[in-house]
Specification:
The chain is mainly α. It is built from ten helices and no strands. The protein folds into two domains: 3-16 and 108-208, Orthogonal Bundle (Cytochrome Bc1 Complex, Chain D, domain 2), CATH 1.10.760; 20-102, Cytochrome c-like domain (Cytochrome Bc1 Complex, Chain D, domain 2, Orthogonal Bundle), CATH 1.10.760. The chain starts with a helix and ends with a helix.
């Protein structure tokens, strides 16, 4: 069995990865709405950022959002533009913010026609010669993710933001100044490490157009 098949089997086997484990406080979307005034400057009033370098949060899985907010607050995912923004926030506060954004409707995006074929191939089939598993294993064929498992939705996300994160994960495979908050299994770092710049651009553009 090759590496891609092993990764695929582990994912489908339901193993719990460190990067999806989050404190299980139940979020209150109404309470969260009262805490997102500062967030709206970058992420939009309803979580649909108009700036491609800032992620859309609307409609994202609540479990995934909570984990990322905790990681940002606790320093496991350093983001310069988020420095200090979550200081003093409790797990309940973060759960409420996550619940608010999860309850919002996400906006759509577009795929560059020139990148469609390669992006679809990477997303649906992976890159066998480099042991890169298909993205559908965690993020679903439609890009909606798997909210209960904590795997994020990608459909409609800004292509530029996704590409930036994939490059950060790729760097994090060997350099801890890259993104490393995918747990001890390094599932995203391992996947991104096998992708070329062109494949990252293509798959990022492809998922941006999924609905």
């Amino acid at each position: 069995m090759n590496k891609a098949a092993i990764v695929f089997s582990v994912l489908l086997g339901g193993v719990s990865f460190g990067f999806i484990n989050a404190a299980s406080a139940a979020g209150d979307a109404a309470a969260g709405k009262d805490m997102i005034a500062v967030c709206a400057a970058c992420h939009g009033a309803d979580g649909n950022s108009a700036v491609p370098t800032f992620p859309k949060l609307a409609g994202q899985g609540e479990k995934y959002l909570l984990k990322q907010l905790q990681d940002i607050r606790d320093g496991a995912r350093p983001i310069p533009t988020m420095a200090g923004q979550l200081d003093g926030k409790s797990d309940q506060n973060l759960a409420d913010i996550a619940a608010f954004y999860a309850a919002q409707a996400g906006s759509g995006g577009h795929t560059d026609p020139a990148l469609l074929a390669l992006g679809e191939k990477v997303y649906r089939s992976g890159v066998a010669e480099r042991n890169v598993a298909a993205c559908t294993a965690c993020h679903s064929p439609t890009g909606k993710g798997n909210a209960p498992a904590g795997f994020p939705a990608l459909a409609g996300q800004h292509a530029e933001y996704i590409a930036t994160q994939l490059r950060a994960y790729r760097k994090g495979y060997e350099d801890d100044t890259g993104r490393t908050n995918d747990g001890d299994t390094k599932i995203m770092r391992t996947t991104a490490f096998g992708l070329s710049d062109g494949e990252i651009e293509a798959v990022s553009s492809y998922v941006a157009g999924l609905k």
